[in-house]
Amino acid sequence: MGYENRRYGAPRQMTKVKCSECGADTEVPFVPTSGKPVYCRDCYQKRRRY
Questions:
Q1: How many domains does the chain have?
Q2: From CA 8, how far away is CA 14, in angstroms rounded?
Q3: pLDDT at residue 45 in the model
């Protein structure tokens, strides 16, 4: 189920960012806070394992 097909509420507004770890272009469903790292899906999953 993609973000555009959510059952409740409005579709999420996606923000384009660069991953803080690998530098890949990605989109996140929030506006990042200045000074905090943002990760792509793959890097986020790798970091969650620790």
A1: 1
A2: 17
A3: 93
